[in-house]
Specification:
mainly alpha
């Protein structure tokens, strides 16, 4: 399918139920941070619904491509994208190894509560054991996005100020928006800090 975008070609084979062809497209196309990354996400989302040998036949060839990517950022982001669907491309080969103690300490320094992560992701009881870094990144980024959305909605509700005197409830809403933006920055900083040193 020469000239066809990689996302369209992968979607075509996915709709036909030919996942091996979809994997072949991903393996043959030049990796880049937009369409190719989206195409890999499509394949991993489908792989997440499979099990046993069928899943391995889809997951492993893509994982091999990911491990060989020369672009460190793309490699890291594809691993995190896959984790959103429950697919593990990283077996301590790409993301840095962080223990639960590292997570707790970094969360404290960043000003967020690691207990919130534990609501969505099981953490080891032993503080010296490594945590699922891809899972932590997915959750902390999702929390950052949620706080940012809340801030944006509050600002939208107040509308343009245009030098007018704000009502008390509008002032409170803008203060709350500032608080939500700060929380978004902190959760984003947690993910960024813990991912430093990705290979």
């Amino acid at each position: 399918m020469a000239g066809v975008r990689v996302t369209d070609e992968v979607s075509f084979w996915q709709r036909r139920g030919d996942l091996r062809r979809a994997v072949r497209v991903v393996r043959e196309r030049t990796p880049e941070r937009l369409r190719w990354r989206a195409a890999v996400s499509t394949v991993t989302e489908v792989a997440a619904g499979l099990s046993g040998a069928e899943r391995v036949r889809i997951e492993e060839p893509v994982r091999e491509v990911v491990l060989d990517l020369p672009d460190r950022i793309l490699r890291r982001e594809v691993v995190i994208d896959a984790r959103r669907f429950g697919v593990d491309f990283d077996r301590f080969e790409i993301l840095p190894v962080r223990t639960r103690w590292d997570l707790t300490r970094t969360a404290y320094l960043t000003g967020v509560e690691p207990e919130l992560i534990e609501r969505y992701l099981p953490l080891p009881a032993d503080f010296g054991q490594p945590v699922d870094m891809a899972g932590v990144a997915v959750i902390s980024r999702a929390l950052a996005a949620t706080h940012k959305q809340r801030a944006d909605k509050l600002v939208e509700r107040v509308g343009g100020t245009d030098g007018r005197v704000l009502a008390k409830h509008e002032q409170i809403m803008l203060e709350r928006a500032d608080h939500e933006r700060d929380r978004a920055r902190r959760w984003a900083a947690l993910s960024k800090t813990l991912l430093e040193g990705s290979r």
